[in-house]
Amino acid sequence: MVTKKIYIKNMVCDRCKRVVAEELQKLGYTVLQVGLGEAELSVESGEIDMEQLREVLENNGFELLDDRKTQLIEKVKLAIIELVHQAGEQELHTNTSAYIADKVGLDYNYISSLFSSFEGITIEKYLILQRTERVKELLVYDELSLKEIAYKLGYSSVAHLSNQFKKVTGLTPSHFKQIKSDKRKTLDKVQD
């Protein structure tokens, strides 16, 4: 038995991990572990039918990542998504560049330069877009005040949240909450 790790784009939640695990098992692979953006398999011959795997993943909205730099970019995106959508308030009040560098295991300046060249936007802009989507989600749920949302997502003030939100959406958070017609985007489409 040989252990192989594959990297997968567009995995953003526990449901994604479950779908990938189920699909890999249907293909006859022994799944050792599935995390956001990756899966570890035990393969008898050491061979994986990459075309079959690519097709199954694409049919479920995922993409197989072959290139090391592409895999790195996906790790950065997953770290940001985890920070904004799953992390506690403690992590959101830490230094973002240090958090990402720690999660990815590389120098932030290198990561930032690579991300910008591949994605056409900075890590900071991607983070702002993710935070904006999270604000939209929390506004739609209507369980927290704007002040609570600002704190939860690591904004320095309600004014900072409102200004950033308006720059991205063209609406104030209160106007967005009132009309709720600006459809939220899926996490993998945030930069589009």
Automatic annotation (TrEMBL):
Limits of the HTH araC/xylS-type domain: 78-179
**UniProt-listed PROSITE patterns:** HTH_ARAC_FAMILY_2 (PS01124)
Keyword Transcription regulation found? yes
Matches recorded under InterPro entries: HMA_dom_sf, Homeodomain-like_sf, HTH_AraC
Which domain of life, per UniProt? Bacteria
**Alphabetically ordered keywords of this record:** DNA-binding, Transcription, Transcription regulation
Matches recorded under PANTHER family: ARAC-FAMILY TRANSCRIPTIONAL REGULATOR, HTH-TYPE TRANSCRIPTIONAL REGULATOR EXSA
Could you identify this protein by its name? AraC family transcriptional regulator
Species in which this protein is naturally found: Pontibacter anaerobius
